[in-house]
Amino acid sequence: MAQNNTQKDPNESKSATIAIIGGGFSGTLVAVNLLKTATQPLAIKLIERREQIAKGIAYSTDTDCHLLNVSAGNMTAFPNDAGHFLRWLYYNYSELADFLPHEITASTFIPRKVYGLYIQSVLEEALATAPNHIKLERITDEVIAVEKIQTASSQRARVFLKHQGAIAADKVVLALGNSPNVLPQDADRTRNAWSAAALEDLHLDDDVLLTGTGLTMVDMVLSLHERNHKGKIYAVSRRGLSPQRHQATKPYPPFLTVENAPKTALGLWRHLRMEVKKAESEGYDWRAVIDSLRPITQKVWQQLPLQEQKRFLRHAVPYWDVHRHRIAQQVAEVLDQLLASGQLTIAAGRIQSQEQDENGVTVTIQARTNKSQKSQKSQNKSSYTLQVHRVVNCTGVAADYRKSNHPLVESLRSQNLIRPNSLGLGLASAANGALLNGTNKPSNLLYTIGTPRKGDLWETIAVPELRGQAQALAETLLRSLPLRVRSIPTTPLLIGDILQQVNSALIFRQFCDPETSSYTYLIGDRQTREAVLVDPVLEQVERDLQAIDDLGLTLRYCLETHIHADHVTGAGKLRQLRGAQVLVPEKAAVLKADLSLADGEILTIGSVTIQAIATNGHTNAHLSYLVNNTHLLTGDALFIRGCGRTDFQGGDAGTLYDAVTEKLFTLPDETLVYPAHDYKGRTVSTIGEERRLNPRFSDRTREQFITIMNNLNLAFPKKMNEAVPANEYCGDFIPQDSVANLGIDLAISQDEKEIELTILKNTEIYNDYFAMYI
């Protein structure tokens, strides 16, 4: 059943089309990145055989105790927004409270079914905020073949569906996840763990055999435990190894580089074991050593010769997997409890035979013997039988495209459009995800992501790798599309109408502190309800929070244009009250900020973008912020008909002139200018106005501007001695020695008494802040 999200567009026939085969995690994230970044007309066909989109096999579970194997802090869907998943959890906590622990932190392991809802939400948000000429069609069907079509000007593909005919596409993405093969049909008493019927019709006292002892086995044990199963649970694999548990560790410094890594499987294994031994002698945990390899694992794998990769697969994979892919502590505790009670047995061995009758399944197992047990007599004694009611295959789904009997894979193989990886792990692909054909040439039509790239990348199935691949693949696809243009609408849009469309998701508010004539800006996204405050003032925190609550927003960030000398920032207080992160310009002398922003970096909240523009000169670390390319927050670099002074805090008149004329005045004339101060009650200007009318810059040379600024002879701001040291600590604290060094007697005047009260107040905030981290 096809489901279109928008009405028919008269220009749709002129849109490029990308078909994504597979609507699980990988395919969905490719679609999300296309929706968020495409600029030309585009039709996205997201094809998934299951009714549920975005969840795939891993996140379709309804079992509450199936937890993510990675903590929440590392499970964001976006490489450049590390806190996105945590913010989503906080925002939706009231709806999800029945499935979540009372307190959620970056270290919390979340139920997988909740993560599936998160990915669905990410897709819905991207769909809701995409431009009208970017469309997504969800198709519930199975792809059985792909055929290359040669047109007069280019190559296209025809994608054949099992029930709904065929669709044409300019690009095709194989996002097949963990299931490229046709799964075997479940027998009466032998089921596949991927099947919804894996544990159906089991009585509580029935004995069960699980073949395989990895993560899939853990899922089955947890499902049985949640059902209050009383029967025995046997789990058997060749080596009888089960996943290790996660444990908090201090990071281990990198000890291996791509250049000095051994070029043999044995050499790598020995090197790793020696490093673990060394690390443990220094108080580190082995987990930290394994984790330190994560950034280079793919490159180390790729430089191994083919024979060494095969050797690693034969001998080391089971040991690598149970140490690399770990389980949450609470999951491990359930397994420990079942093992201790004797209900669960995990053993090493091979299945020799199994016979089914009306009483169940009789399974003969050859136990794994030690190397010293050579005699036939010893081996005979090591065989034993189990009588169970159900056998569940937990060995996972093969990714050997050389043997796959899936119609789609057979279709691609027969046309020489794909080349199965020689290791039996997925498909051969280029660095950008393009599939290699039978002659080893990268396709400009077919691409893949995730599990099919396992032979090429090894590490390719975890969320950090997949989200990076999805973003990069979306960029590759968009760059490779044929150029398509749209005709001008019958009724031309005015500039104001265009700006209104661009900023339809933008919430923008301007607030003023009358004492210092300081402006604070509230920026929010209507869809995600996330918000940013720029240049908050300590005395106005309650006002700002009231506005945030009135608009139903969640404060995520506090941004500073610079270290203020005329007021104390409210950022530290807002961080304390709402958990917002404090972001400051790069190289600013700020001690307690969460992050810094460099020139050109872009912060996103939903579909709203905030670009940092270095505009030093008023101070030696100053940023302006361009919001959605239309609203420019200039801080003290550019005022309405003026600019900030340059005679303290590392200011430099020439640097400011260059920043304003070369960076800000080159923006479009209609760009709105919102300064950090105005002492005459003015609220907004434009770049065009300021370039033409600003007396400091209009028709001024650089030398003239420097002369003007060097002869202003202004008094220092009245709050400078209080504000600068406080703002160096994000407003959380005014160091006593900073005040003392300024020669201030805190007991002389009323003004200085106010300073003393502010110091005491900020000292309390400072102590509370540090108490959170001790």
From TrEMBL:
It comes from the Bacteria. It is an enzyme of class 3 (hydrolase). One of its GO terms (biological process) is glutathione metabolic process. Residues 517-677 form the Metallo-beta-lactamase domain. Its EC number is 3.1.2.6. Keywords: Acetylation, Dioxygenase, Hydrolase, Iron, Metal-binding, Oxidoreductase, Transit peptide. Pfam families: Lactamase_B (PF00753), NAD_binding_9 (PF13454). The keyword Transcription does not apply. Its cofactor is Fe(2+). Gene3D superfamilies: FAD/NAD(P)-binding domain (3.50.50.60), Ribonuclease Z/Hydroxyacylglutathione hydrolase-like (3.60.15.10). The keyword Metal-binding applies. GO terms for molecular function: hydroxyacylglutathione hydrolase activity; metal ion binding; sulfur dioxygenase activity. This is Hydroxyacylglutathione hydrolase. It comes from Pseudanabaena biceps PCC 7429.
